[in-house]
Amino acid sequence: MKSVRTLQPTSATLYMAASICNTRATCGEWLMRFQQKIAQILICIGLLACSSVPPPPPAELVELKTEEKIEAISLSPGDIFEIRVFREKDLSGTFRVGPDGSIRFPLIGHMIVTGLTPEKLSDQIRTKLVQGSFLKDPHVSVLISEYRSKKIFVIGKVAKPGTFPYEQGMNIVQAITLAGGFAPLASGNQTILTRLREGKEQRIRVPVHQISRGKHPNVLLKPGDIIYVPESIL
User: Fold this and answer.
1) Are residues 106 and 168 in the same domain?
2) Total count of domains within the chain
3) Could you tell me the residue range of the domain that residue 219 belongs to?
4) How would you class 213 by CB atoms within 10 Å of its CB: exposed for 0-12, middle for 13-18, buried for 19 or more?
5) pLDDT per residue as tens digits for the range 54-69
6) Are residues 95 and 156 in the same domain?
7) What mean pLDDT comes out for the span 13-41?
8) Average pLDDT in the 27-42 region?
9) What is the spatial distance between Cα 111 and Cα 5, in angstroms, rounded to a whole number?
10) Is a pLDDT exceeding 50 seen at residue 123?
11) What is the dihedral of CA 167, 168, 172, 173, to 10 degrees?
12) Is residue 16 part of a domain?
């Protein structure tokens, strides 16, 4: 019977095995440290991004102190207006701005009116009637019937929230009336009017109850105004 020979590891073999183990351990430690460094870098980048791009500030809530002057509104497609020429019934009538921003006026014909205020349009018609030798000294007036291209919005605690056509000279009490008036639990004196001023959104607190009682001046509206009536806390 042959004897089984047991192989004994040499010193060189043991050294190689130890080197491999040490190398694997070193690689594992290096990989762990590398991952930790990457995580630290990503955290730093995130903190820098957060600090360099602050969140936008909320819209400023201000008290309305004086009645803001409302500039003349220009015409846009869909708007309806009336032109009156004194003692000239054939030249007077109601017109609607077409999709191309124009109207057809008697004697003058095709006219581009988009972007014109009522005053500028009346001046143009007067000038063209004189230059065309149709009238010597015409008296022309332009009266807006409906700004269909311009809207206001009434939301919150009102009977009928919605979008409504803007009318020249419209005030906040009229707008809330169009929306059916205040709903139960409405906080009328905390009504918020949101308006764009010089490209920035501004919120204005309007005491509508005081306005309706004659204790505060009314507030004229602009196209695009948003009226929000909050609910009373009590």
Assistant:
1) no
2) 2
3) 150-229
4) exposed
5) 444 444 555 555 455 6
6) no
7) 53
8) 58
9) 114
10) yes
11) -80
12) no
Is the whole model's pTM more than 0.70, yes or no?
no
Q: How far apart are CA 227 and CA 203, in angstroms?
A: 10
**8 A C-beta contact, residue 225 and residue 153:** yes
User: What does the H/E/C string look like for the chain?
Assistant: CCCCCCCCCCHHHHHHHHHHHHHHHHHHHHHHHHHHHHHHHHHHHHHHHHHHCCCCCCCCEEECCCCCCCCCCCCCCCCEEEEEECCCHHHCEEEECCCCCEEEECCCEEEECCCCCHHHHHHHHHHHHHHCCCCCCCCEEEEEEEEEEEEEEEEECECCCEEEEECCCCEHHHHHHHCCCECCCECHHHEEEEEEECCEEEEEEECHHHHHCCCCCCCECCCCCEEEECECCC
What length is written for the chain? 234
Q: How far apart are CA 148 and CA 165, in angstroms?
A: 6
> Please, which residues bridge with residue 94 across strands?
82
Structure tokens at 186: 């409405």
Q: Which residue has the higher pLDDT, 198 or 114?
A: 114
Residue 65 lies in a domain: no
Tell me the per-residue pLDDT of 73-104, one tens digit each, with 9 for 90 and over: 899 999 999 999 999 999 999 999 999 999 99
Residue 232's pLDDT is what? Answer: 87
Could you tell me if 155 and 225 lie in one domain?
yes
The residue that leads in pLDDT, 78 or 21, is 78
Query: How much is the CA Rg of the chain, to the nearest whole Å?
Result: 38
Residues 143 and 182 in one domain: no
Q: What is the mean pLDDT of the chain?
A: 80
